[in-house]
Amino acid sequence: MPVARILAGRVLLALALLGVSAQAHADPIRHLAGQLAKGAGRLVKRKALVLPFPDAGHLTASSISVQDQLTAKLSGRHGLQVLKASQVRSYLTQSRINPAELVNPDVAQRIGLLLGVDAVVAGGLAETDTHRCTAEAVLINTGIGEILASAQAKWKKSCADLAPALTSQH
Fold first, then answer.
1. In terms of DSSP bridges, do strands 133-141 and 119-127 run parallel, antiparallel, or are they unpaired?
2. Which entry of 28, 43, 55, 70 is 20 to 30 Å from 152 by CA?
3. Beta strands in the chain (DSSP E)
4. How many domains does the chain have?
């Protein structure tokens, strides 16, 4: 079973258990940041990083845009210090990690430990049957691998059209 499907199953289960549903929000990135930041209260160092959000196992302009915007909107919430997205991408390029593996909680945890943070935001993008982009994300405690928070957001755009829309908003 592909890694992306395993994480998708875990994320959907976590979302169902937490009663989270995918709704279109005025600012889906702000919604993701707010939901994920709620789990930061249990962190010791309050240092985190946001991984790119693969779309069908590949890094796209939308994957990078979601990472950049979520990093910016998560930074400072609940006292959270977030590594710059460009630093995270530089590490990923140097270490040659397959983008499809970024949705694997064990890989995300290992990356977080190596970069000295106590939490990692991992997730992915998926296109619905109605051509709307959905993001699913989890905040993972790197010390014990526990999912501290999960969130889901939906845009009224396709994943391919998401990057230009996010860039023009900010």
1. antiparallel
2. 43
3. 47-50, 81-82, 119-127, 133-141, 147-154
4. 1
